[in-house]
Amino acid sequence: MKKQESLESYADTELFVIGTFAVELAEILESVDDEGSTVTLQGYGKTLSKPSDKIAYVIDELHDLKKKALNVELLLEVAKELED
After folding, report:
1. Which residues are 39's β-sheet partners?
2. Which 8-state DSSP code applies to residue 42?
């Protein structure tokens, strides 16, 4: 039972992280049409100013988010198995 709760708790945390980062990616996409706007990536010290760079970054990060979401799905399946 404790393992199941631990897995579910971890999955919930991961879902929160995924959701938060998805919002940040949406904000980057919203800035694509803003002439001269730049996006500074926290922790990377990198600035994106060209629309194509912003879009490429978002696409790359969405691939990573998809992998995280699939991992969360697997964790929840394992937690359900432990419940049964």
Report:
1. 48
2. T
